[in-house]
Amino acid sequence: MLNAIEIRDLTKTYGTRRGLTGLTLDVRQGEVFGYLGPNGAGKSTTIRVLLDLIRPTGGSVRVLGLDPRHDGRELRRRIGYLAGDFVVDGRQSVRECLRFLARLSGGVPVSRIDELADRLGLDQTATIKNLSKGNRQKVGLVQAFMHTPELLILDEPTSGLDPLLQQTFLDLVTEAARNGQTVFMSSHIMDEVEAVADRIAILRDGRLVALDTVADLRAAAVRRIEIGFAAPVSLDQFRGLAGLTEPTLDDTGTILRARLTGTPDAVLKIAAQHTVTSLHTTDPHLDEIFHTQYADAAPRDAA
Q: Coiled coil where (predicted)?
């Protein structure tokens, strides 16, 4: 599979502070890629390097097979970008702003602009300076999606949007992926990334600490398990089982609680030697996976 983005050993320093350190990863064509990390982790720095808004201290990037530094003009026509701090001329109306940006993108049918504005509930007669943060974000989303770019780079795309419009945004991302477009999405909202992302990367202090599908990250994460038995069991049977930690029994000796990583095969085989009356597991949400990875994982390189 071809890559829409290739990052190799990317480093960016700001004086004595490091923004990125040895970052290596690939984003495949046609996938939705979630890029996670708290403020200061290096997410926006990565995006700005990809767009040649800032220059790296070391390493290299390729975007749609091109070098952003030397092929920026061509790339800008093929990319839809929404900055985390989207700003445009406040004196324009929404309609004037979007039509001007459409011309810069090589031309966009008016019907396409109107369709996106209607879906997002954006009043095109309003003046930009009079818009709320949420409505300015809608303008940013329309300008990013309107020319059906090969690659969408979205930095905190739902900032300021209400929950209903967040769902509309997710619909737009899903439609873009079905259309073969690539979406690189930085976000703090874990649920929206979990809903649409094929893979996610987690960044910590400018280094990559996890890169995998949501399903595989969840499978490797810690879950809580509770097994009920018809009669008391011995805790010794469950100590030391692969993937099972912190096993405890309630006062009756009939309810086992523990933390489980990976496959439940070993614990289920022991449990099956008894009469099981109940079995409950709690799958971790992406935000739990993120916090676990961020707190515990050692930084690494991945592609």
A: none
Structural domain boundaries, residue 230: 223-283
Instruction: Tell if the pTM clears 0.85, that is, is over it.
Output: no
CA dihedral 184, 186, 187, 191 (to 10 degrees): 30
Strands in 207-213's sheet, in edge-to-edge order, are: 79-82, 151-155, 182-186, 32-36, 199-204, 207-213
Low-confidence ranges of the chain (pLDDT < 50): 297-303
The closest of 125, 133, 137 to 92, measured between CA atoms, is: 125
- Looking at the structure, tell me whether residues 265 and 165 fall in a common domain: no
Task: Establish if 247 belongs to a structural domain.
Answer: yes
Same domain, 213 and 233: no
Q: Tell me, what's the pLDDT at 73?
A: 86
Residues 131 and 279 in one domain: no
Is 74 in a helix, a strand, or coil? helix
Q: Please count the other Cβ atoms lying within 10 Å of the Cβ belonging to residue 154.
A: 24
